[in-house]
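Suppose you are handed a protein chain with no further information: no name, no annotation, nothing but its sequence. What can you learn? This example shows the usual starting point.
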Amino acid sequence: MLKIDVLIIAGSKSDEEIVKKAEKILNENQILYGVEYCSFHREPERLIKIVKDSNAKIFIAVAGLSAALPGAVAAFTDKVVIGVPVSAKLNGLDALLSIVQMPKGVPVACVGIDNAEKMLHIWQ
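A reasonable first move is to predict its three-dimensional structure. Written in structure tokens, the prediction is:
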């Protein structure tokens, strides 16, 4: 297994444009990362395996609509999770609120809608 610092998990291939923003920043800063596409709604067991088997120090969870992905990732790790809301519906407000309103004890940081570039500032 390749040792990486960051694992980007996106709920759908339709989130690829946002993933590419995160990849650009990680590449510019020479940070080792991996990318997985996995929906918690459609493939919960696969997501759990991805998270539990990962040696990444940080997870970036890119999600739109109900944006359950960051919370689901946080439920299966004690590592840092950064949620990136995607403007799929309601201009991304639904995804933003889903991520920033995580219940007590679910540590998920959140950046602005479609703003994967900001995640590096949280990490540093």
